[in-house]
Design goal:
By secondary structure, the protein is mostly helical. The chain has 6 helices and no strands. The protein has one domain.
Length: about 140
C-alpha cells in the first residue's frame, strides 16, 4: 500500500492526484531547502571551476547569484512555515514533522501529539490544499 493515499473526492480539501503529490513533494523538500539556504548564505569560500581560469575570490556576480538563491529559498521556507501556522491550531511542530519530515501518525502519537487520527489527517489535508493553491 502506498504511503500517501489519494484524497477522497467528497473531502472539502479535495485535490487531484497530481496536485496532491506535487504538494507532498514540495513540503518534503523543506529540510533540503533549509540546508541549501545555510549553504547559500556562505559565499566566503566560493571557488568557480566552470571558467577557463579558476577564480578563487568571490566576484560580485557569484555573490549576487547566492543572494538571489538565498532569497528564493527563504521565501519558499517562509511559505511552508506560514501555511503550517495557519493550519496547525497551535500544533506547529507536529504538523511540520508530519508533512516536512514524513513522520507517520503513529510516530507523531508516540511523540505525544494530542490530536486523534481523523483530526490530524484533516489538518494535513488542509495544509496540502492551501500549499497546492500557493505554489
Amino acid at each position: 500500500m502506498s504511503k500517501y493515499r489519494p484524497m477522497p473526492i467528497k473531502s472539502k480539501y479535495y485535490l487531484p492526484k497530481e496536485d496532491y503529490l506535487t504538494a507532498i513533494h514540495y513540503a518534503l523538500r523543506y529540510p533540503m531547502m533549509l540546508a541549501e539556504l545555510d549553504d547559500a548564505r556562505d559565499t566566503s569560500t566560493a571557488i568557480r571551476y566552470d571558467k577557463d581560469k579558476v577564480q578563487t575570490s568571490p566576484s560580485d556576480d557569484m555573490i549576487m547569484n547566492a543572494a538571489v538563491r538565498a532569497s528564493e529559498l527563504s521565501e519558499k521556507v517562509k511559505l511552508i512555515e506560514d501555511i503550517i501556522s495557519v493550519c496547525s491550531n497551535g500544533l506547529d511542530s507536529y504538523l511540520k514533522w508530519g508533512v516536512c519530515y514524513g513522520l507517520t501518525f503513529d510516530q507523531l502519537e508516540a511523540k505525544g501529539m494530542p490530536l486523534g487520527r481523523t483530526a490530524y489527517y484533516e489538518m494535513r489535508r488542509k495544509f496540502y490544499f492551501i500549499l497546492s493553491r500557493k505554489i
